[in-house]
From TrEMBL:
InterPro entries: PHP_dom, PHP_domain, Pol/His_phosphatase_N, Pol/histidinol_Pase-like. PANTHER family: EXONUCLEASE, POLYMERASE_HISTIDINOL PHOSPHATASE N-TERMINAL DOMAIN-CONTAINING PROTEIN. One of its GO terms (molecular function) is 5'-3' RNA exonuclease activity. Pfam families: PHP (PF02811). Residues 2-66 form the Polymerase/histidinol phosphatase N-terminal domain. CDD domains: PHP_HisPPase_AMP. This is Unannotated protein.
Length: 281
């Protein structure tokens, strides 16, 4: 069982890295990708938790914006965690999250919604990368909405009047940085239309030219037609096809291991890193 896209409480998940690794072991996961948003803060604890047959593919989910303002998430896996320019890019992306959150809260307060930055901070675990899920949790805690899923289908959707973008690399810049750091780049849920605007099929050639290695095809937010189209694109561009849960722990429907990557596709992906960085016991 290979799940290459999960989150811990170092970004917007609810499990600690140790809890996530233990849960994956209990479920029989053989390769686990830990990809917190714009951070590698959970790597060390995850490494210390490895035992048995599980292997870790450590990485990060990088928040990107196209030149025309479409939000894109790029999974960087198996890159050098000490790569200076990569860590600088992640830090700069994290720094843009605070002013963005303040603007979203201001918009909600102007609309009469009882929410504050203090409420958001109270919902964010210590040291976690600030993100919309923490605003969603704050809204749940205040009784404004019932769940994170409800928030992202409405108030926090990319097309919502409350949505605010933040400074971020373009997808091409992110791919190039991941490859420069020795890792592999997989675009996450690129046709997830419920999240807002999505890429067009023509965008993938530019990403492939920049060094893209794979497409996350099997994901809860893709319907059958979208998956079929992405498989065609991956085949045409010789990209690995991955599947993943995008697990966040409590508050989201995604279950660990609910979508998986085939072993041959994982082997294809891993072979394109500049060296073997999978973590084993």
């Amino acid at each position: 069982m290979i799940d290459l896209h999960t989150h811990t409480n170092k970004s917007d998940g609810t499990d600690t890295p140790r809890e996530l690794v233990n849960k994956a072991i209990s479920l029989g996961v053989t390769v686990l990708g830990i990809t917190d948003h714009d951070t590698t803060a959970g790597w060390e604890e995850a490494k210390q938790s490895v035992r048995g047959q599980i292997q870790l593919a450590l990485g990060s989910e990088i928040s990107c914006l196209t030149d025309d303002g479409i939000s894109v998430h790029m999974l960087g896996l198996l890159f050098d965690g000490n790569h200076h320019d990569m860590q600088t890019m992640l830090e700069e992306t994290r720094d843009g999250r605070l002013p963005r959150m303040r603007k979203m809260v201001e918009k909600m307060r102007a609309a009469g919604i009882d929410i504050s930055m203090d409420d958001v901070e109270a919902a964010r675990p210590a040291g976690a990368t600030l993100g919309r899920p923490h605003l969603a949790d704050a809204l749940v805690n205040k009784g404004v909405i019932k769940s994170r899923d409800e928030a992202f289908q409405g108030m926090l959707n990319n097309d919502s009047v409350f949505y605010v973008s933040h400074a971020a690399p373009t997808p091409v810049e992110a791919v190039r940085m991941i490859r420069s750091a020795g890792g592999v780049a997989v675009i996450a849920h690129p046709f997830a239309s419920l999240r807002g605007q999505i890429l067009d099929a023509s965008n993938f050639q530019e990403l492939a030219d920049a060094g893209l290695n794979g497409i996350e095809v099997d994901h809860r937010d893709h319907n059958l037609a979208e998956r079929q189209m992405l498989r065609v694109i991956a085949k045409e561009l010789d990209l690995a096809v991955t599947g993943a849960s995008d697990y966040h722990g409590n508050g989201k429907l995604n279950s660990l291991g609910e979508y998986q990557s085939a072993p041959d596709q994982w082997e294809k992906l891993e072979s394109r890193a500049d060296q073997r960085r999978v973590i084993t016991a």
